Amino acid sequence: MTKSLPRPDRIRRAIELLRNETTDKFDDVVTFSAHEFTDPELAQRERDLIFGEVPSIIAHGSEIAKPYDFMTVQMPRNNVLLVRQKDGGVKAFVNLCRHRGALLEDNEKGRCRFFSCPYHRWSYDPDGSLRMITRDNTFGDIDRGKFGLVELPCEERHGFIWIIDNANASIDVAGWLGPEMDAILGGYDLAELVCFRAAGFDEPTNWKIMQDAFLDGYHIQYAHPNSAGKIIHTNVMAFEDFGRHCRFIAPRKSIDRWLEEDPGDRSLDPYVTETHFLLPNSTLLRQPDHFQLLTFRPHPTDPTKSRMEQRLMVPRLEVSGMAEDHWNNRWEKNWEILLTVLHSEDFPLLRNSQQGMGSADAGDMLLGRNETANQVFRRETKRLLAKGAPPS
Question: Considering the entire predicted model, what is its pTM?
């Protein structure tokens, strides 16, 4: 565990690392095996013991900003219906009619004052209570209070909506984040931002391969020579380990002018990108003028598939000082750059990685001392899985 250091100190540490052509490192190289990305039994344990036990982010609050706004999400264990309540709170439900199990809502997003099942037209209020049984005089007597929608633990904190994918769990996001990371996120005023764009992609790749790629400052020069490699230094990370979570600063190449010149009291914030790993499955990128959130979830049944979701969170138009056209054009251009990098550079490499992991004789593989955030991800997911292991 490390204490959170002031940002200017961390940026100056990154400059020192850059001057010395090194990076923060862990003590040892660790090994891993290909079966961790292909094994159906392990994948089931991850769905139950990770996503069914701990909070993970599924949306930014601005995506369902008004009462009765809703969105649907496929989680590893449940189809989820997320609804903004009349009082401004948020609830999450299993997206399934309690009559015969039909999917209650198949639209990705919308606004609805009640939800009506397309099969027999049973309906539910936004708070999940059973509103109406069609032709109830012929159906028979039931306790309606027991047949509302199944609720999942849900909490809105730091601008994000978090759930645990297990109706029998309880949620405490602050407790899960821990005091350091909770304070870090609290300092960003993320609830004051707006999600400019969000998109999801279903990929033929294990979720851990996907998550690993977006914690990795070691590949930038090689996998992204014409995009990020031109902007960000490779394999230079000023790293902080908070146990479950971590963060690191990577210097942009624009910082190079300060390698020989003392910046004094000048703010160096515009010269770095800061990455936060939020266990189990989120990478939050702090850019000089906005945030990006990347989340990775296992497929409900297939260990060789996953879903990645990307969100771009920016200052609201009314506080940005920009004209509306300029605001839209600026963030639309940024969004298109992100999509291009994902689809032309990241995704093809990660699909190939999954194919390679399918080799019967793959042998052991390695995470280096320099791959600090990747080591935290592996260490902490193993801890979560070990908690649910039967006694030996």
Answer: 0.96
Q: How far is the C-alpha of 7 from the C-alpha of 320, rounded, in Å?
A: 23
Residue pair 343/236 in contact (Cβ under 8 Å)? The answer is: no
Which of 237, 327, 258, 249 has its CA nearest to residue 288? 249
Return d(Cα 151, Cα 149) in angstroms, integer: 6
The residue type at 100:
R
Over residues 262-275, the mean pLDDT reads: 93
Percent of the chain with pLDDT over 70: 98
**CA–CA distance, 38 with 391 (Å, rounded to integer):** 25
For residue 277, what are the β-bridge partners?
246, 283
Edge to edge, the sheet with strand 238-241 lists 193-203, 306-315, 291-298, 282-286, 272-278, 246-251, 238-241
Render pLDDT for 37-93 as a digit per residue (tens, 0 to 9).
999 999 999 999 999 999 999 999 999 999 999 999 999 999 999 999 999 999 999
Q: What is the mean predicted confidence (pLDDT) over 371-376? A: 98
Radius of gyration of the chain from its Cα atoms, rounded to whole angstroms: 22
What residues contact residue 348 under an 8 Å CB cut-off, 6+ apart? none
SS3 235: coil
Distances (CA, A) of 280 to 197, 309, 371, 386: 23, 14, 17, 14
DSSP β-bridge partners for residue 285: 275, 292
The CA distance from 172 to 10, in Å, is 29
Token pair listed for 246: 């971590």
pLDDT digits (tens, 9 = 90+) for 223-258: 999 999 999 999 999 999 999 999 999 999 999 999
